[in-house]
Structure formats: structure tokens, C-alpha cells
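Hi Q.,

Before the meeting this afternoon, I wanted you to have the calcium ion prediction in hand. No need to reply - just skim if you have a minute. The sequence and ligand are here:
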Amino acid sequence: MPQRIVIVEDDLDIARLLTLELSEAGYEVHAFDGGVRGLTAIRELQPDLIVLDLGLPDLSGAEIARRVRRHDVTPILILTARDDVATKVELLNAGADDYLVKPFHVEELLARVGVQLRKQHVGAPKEIGDLTIDPVRRQVWWAGTEVRLSPREFALLAFMAAQPGRVYGRAEIERNVWGEDLPPASNVVDVHVANIRGKLRDAGGFGVIRTVRGVGYALKG
Ligand code: CA
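Predicted structure with the ligand bound:
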């Protein structure tokens, strides 16, 4: 299966060039010209790598990177017309793995894409008892049986897996897994936890997520 790349770039000449070159290099490429559409596509397509233009008409590349990073480790490469140190620092702080200053040579972009995709294979799956979470492939297993979670369910489980046994409050989960996308007074965390529990149970995993009444949830440590 080819590795999938999402490009968000409003300069259509650059977008076309990148699509052509990356497709020829064997990648499956999806290009979008706006930040909001790009962000939605990233969630739906779950690419292996994301290329973001910094200067977009709606959401900037840096803002997209920040939002993706809340629940996603996918490598991000940002294209920027600005060459100053402050911009580069901002991009790295936003969660970019690398950046390229425009104008750039396509050969260099291809090389840097290759580096990021190779690095991605280093992320080792995390094992908590019978539960295995692969942060790179975003897959979950219970005692060897794959548990198919939605991207958001995965993000929630992976977030709590950072510290098994620790109690995570609903507000904390909302902030980190949904960010500002969440309507107020929503029970969406409880609904997602219930769905994850159901799917784990189907695979034989009972009592994996503990409810701490009035506070939130914890993953069995
Ligand atoms: Ca632009």
C-alpha cells in the first residue's frame, strides 16, 4: 500500500508540482487549498505525512500543525516563504518536524519527505498489560486481537495511555483530544469512552478503563 501524503497549499502551481512529483515518487497524494478543508481531510484520510504551507488564507500552517499535534504524531513538513529565526522557532514549537524555505528544489523536498517517513517507523508500540497501542500506525490490539477505533477514540485512548493508572479529568481530556472543536456542556468524552469500552469488550478486554466518579477516567495500570 503506498504511503499517503496530504498537502495543504493555496499556491496552485506549487500544489500541482508537489502532487506530480510525489505521485511519481510512488506516494498517494491528496492536495487541499485551504486550512479548514485540509484539517478535515487530515482527520479523515489519516495520512503518513503532512505537508503544510505556512501562509494560507484561513488557518495558517502553524495553526494546523498545533491542532494536529493534539492527538496525532504524523510527521509534519511546513513550507514557508519566511526565512527568519523567529518563524522557524514558531514552526518547530507548533509541532512541525521539519520546514523548507520557499523557493526550494523539489529534490530537496522529496529527500526530506523520505527522511520523515523513515523516522516514523521508529515509534515503538506501547504495551500496557494485554493492551497494545501503536502510535505510528494508530492501531490497537487486545491480547493480539485488533480493536478498530475511530481516530478520536484512538486519540483518547493514546492520551490516557501516556500514564496508565493516572486519573484524567473530563476537561483535561476534552482540551487535549478535542481542543476548541468541542461544543460546551458536551457528553462527548463519556460517549467515546463507552464506545472504546464496548470495542475492547468485544475483543475480550474487560475493565480496561476505570470510571472515577465525579472526576474522570483512568486506564488500568
Ligand atoms: Ca500560501
